[in-house]
Every structure is written in C-alpha cells, then in structure tokens.
C-alpha cells in the first residue's frame, strides 16, 4: 500500500515538474502579442484582376476586416492591394494600413469572374503553402468587381463577409446545394482524377448578394455558368444527401410541392471504349403544399399516382440536363470519371471530360417516396 502511494506521489511530482518546464519554455519562446486594437481581423478575402494582357497582369486582393477600438466598439473596413503577384499585394496593402493583418479567421474567399476565368491556381498555391490560412472558409465566384462587393453595406451585418458566410451555409436547405464549397474542397478536387470544381455563382441584386447559379471549372479555370434551374439538377445528380424542392404544377390553382432528401448511387460498366453509367436517385421527403391530388394522406392509390408522376418528372429533368452537359458544356460536372477511374484504373491518361461527353451513355432512375403529408389539406 505504501509503495502504491509513493508511486502516485512520484507521478504527480513528475507531472508538475514537466508542466513548469513547459510554461517556462513557452514564455521564453519570443512569442509577441498585440492587443486586438492593433489588428485587422479579416472576415472576407476577395481576389480580382484589374489589368491583363499577354505580357502583363495586375492582381487586386481585397480584405474586409474588423477593426476594434479601446472602448470595445468595432467596425468593418476594406483594404485593397494591387501588384504583379498575389503575395506582393500584401506589400501594397500594408503601405496604407496602420494595423497588422492576421489570417486564419476569414469566413469566405471570393473570386471575381475575371480571376476565375484566368485561373485560380495563383491563389490556391499561395494559400496552400500558408499554414495560417483558414482552409475551411467558404468560397464563391462573383460576377462583378471584388472592390464593389466588399464595400457593400448591409443592414444588421458588420461586414459583407458575415452575410456571405450565412448565405453559403444556408444554401443547403432548398436547392440541393452541398456544403462542399470550402477552400479545402478545392484543394482536394483541383488535381484529382475525374473530379471537377464547382462553386456558387453570386451577383448583386438591389445591392444585396444573391446566388444565381453555379460556376463550372475545367481544372483551375472557370468555363461555364449554370442558371439556378440547371444548378439544382446538377447538384441532385452530383451530390449525395442533399435537400431541395420539386413542384408539379398543372395550373395556378393546381399544384403540389415536394421537399425531399436525396440518396445517390452510381453504377458503371464498360464495353470496349464505351462507358455506361446508371445514376440511381432515391428521394424521400414531405408534401409541403397540395391542391392537386386529393386524399393523398390516406389513399394509397393517390400516393402511388403522385410518386410515379414525380419520378417521371425528375427523370425527365435529369435527362434534359445530361444531354446539355454532354453536348454543350462538355465537362464532367457530375464527376462520373472519378467512379470509372476507381473501377477500371487510375492514371491512364484518359480525358474524362471527353469520355463522359462523347463515349458514355448515362441513364437515370428515380424512386420517390413520401415521408409525411403534414396535417392534411386545409
């Protein structure tokens, strides 16, 4: 018993000794501290191109940052830097900034359309090497100039970055958006075989940012924009476990609204040089409004009628999008190449955009089930 108590005492003394040494080393490590009043704390980072020619380019990097005073009040400020390379914009920006910038707390990274079309690799390379960057920040593409967006004043929001963070996070509720639009998701997809970067596409309407579709990339360059209707269908076909709404409408007074969550499975087979894909979508959701099909809550025949009609409607919408993807976009925005490569071999030098567009048959099968009809018709 005495030996046991002595052993416990020795462990406690060793722990206290190690803790004291650790504290000593920490305070002797020349770590410098600054009060929050001396810091710019970014909420949004935006990247743009102001001049572009074959032999010359000028980047513009803007930061919307919080600025705090000694009495505890805060405000938002926008600082802009321009230079021939993105890292040099920090030099330009610091020449007219009286505070120190710290990175790691930014909520959203924004690419202008001009920069996205030129290629986002300069930003990705710089941020990937910087361990202080927040790689879980949301990302998007803006159709105008970054400086204009960052200087927008929105009531009840300290900065546009706070609004955009909420806008992008809540986009998952009704339009089949995923939450895979973070900076880390770009790192993962940019050079992965059979994968494609897509980002929410934003504009200003009535001086307020709004999502109007999706920016579609080929490698690091933006090549297409999808309207919101095509965006919903692409998201449904591309993502798993996403939520959105479909409506069957026969007249202004006859319609039914369905709010499902999706489950996606993809099967791939290969015959010769041809690939065949079967995308299976299981939709399970609630009826949120119904003036079209009577007694759907208790009548099994009516429920089956709705499920069959909605399945055919979604399948038709998906087939229409797939035809457009293969003939017009010519980009594997559904990431089917990833599935084929995992089954038939990677690093084969295959151009999956070409294979999916020209050498593939893509079928869609949709199953619709009703989870709830609510309290019934009014």
What does it look like?
The chain contains eleven helices and 13 strands. It has helices at residues 2-27, 88-94, 113-118, 121-129, 146-150, 160-169, 183-190, 228-238, 300-329, 336-344, 352-358, and strands at 39-52, 57-68, 74-83, 100-101, 108-112, 138-142, 198-205, 208-218, 221-227, 246-251, 254-271, 274-290, 360-372. The strands form two sheets. Strands 1, 2, 3, 4, 5, 6, 7, 8 and 9 form a nine-stranded mixed beta sheet that branches. It has a four-stranded mixed beta sheet with strand order 10-11-12-13, with helices on both faces. Strand 1 and strand 2 form a beta hairpin.
How do the helices and strands line up, and which of them pair or pack?
Blueprint: H1 2-27, E1 39-52, E2 57-68, E3 74-83, H2 88-94, E4 100-101, E5 108-112, H3 113-118, H4 121-129, E6 138-142, H5 146-150, H6 160-169, H7 183-190, E7 198-205, E8 208-218, E9 221-227, H8 228-238, E10 246-251, E11 254-271, E12 274-290, H9 300-329, H10 336-344, H11 352-358, E13 360-372
Parallel strand pairs: 1-4, 1-5, 5-6, 6-7, 12-13
Antiparallel strand pairs: 1-2, 2-3, 7-8, 8-9, 10-11, 11-12
Element string (H = helix, E = strand): HEEEHEEHHEHHHEEEHEEEHHHE
Sketch the major β-sheet.
9 strands, mixed
Shape: globular
Beta-strand segment tally: 13
Helix content: 25-40%
Structural class: alpha/beta
Distance between the termini: 76 Å
Number of helices: 11
Radius of gyration: 26 Å
- If you average the pLDDT, what whole number results? 88
Beta fraction: 25-35%
Characterize this entry briefly.
The chain is an alpha/beta fold.
